[in-house]
Amino acid sequence: MTGVTTRCLVCQEPADGSARHDRCAARIRQVAAVLPRVSPEQLDKALQLIADGAIVPGEARGVWHVLSSDGAVTYPAGATFCGCPSQVPCYHSAAVIIAAAAAATLASVPLG
Fold first, then answer.
1. pLDDT tens digit string along 77-104?
2. CA-CA distance, 112 to 68, in Å (whole number)?
3. Which of 57, 63, 77, 98 has the smallest CB count inside 10 Å?
């Protein structure tokens, strides 16, 4: 994705590592804490995928594009499906659930 500005999945501002994204990161952790059927290892990988900007919304509703662990392949993924060789639930689907839920609830639910 050369020449593309990486944006925060929650607020859509450029992801520059600044402190302004602390609220976004808090929202992502809050959503991730209640994610069912995901192992701690999958959760760590999903959160890293989000932090690395390796997941982006696709053009079709509910479909996201996620990078493989080696960065060589992009898989289509959603909350209940993924194009990777693993079976759902995989960390790609977990990342989709976390990112979508965090973005959808940021403005409507107070942190705390």
1. 998 899 999 876 789 999 998 888 777 6
2. 33
3. 63
Cβ distance 76 to 62 under 8 Å?
A: no
Task: Give me the pLDDT at residue 74, please.
Answer: 94
Give the residue from 98, 40, 29 showing the smallest Cα distance to 66.
98
Q: For the chain, list the strands marked E by DSSP.
A: 55-57, 64-67, 74-77
Mean pLDDT of the chain: 79
- CA distances to 6, 54, 67, 74, 102 from 1, rounded to whole Å, are 9, 10, 11, 11, 23
How far apart CA 105 and CA 5 sit, in angstroms, is 23
How big is the CA angle at 34 (ends 29 and 39), to the nearest 5 degrees?
90
Q: Which residues contact 105 (CB under 8 A, 6 or more apart)?
A: 27, 31
Alpha carbon distances (Å) from 108 to 6, 97, 104: 24, 17, 8
Rounded to whole angstroms, how far apart are CA atoms 49 and 52?
5
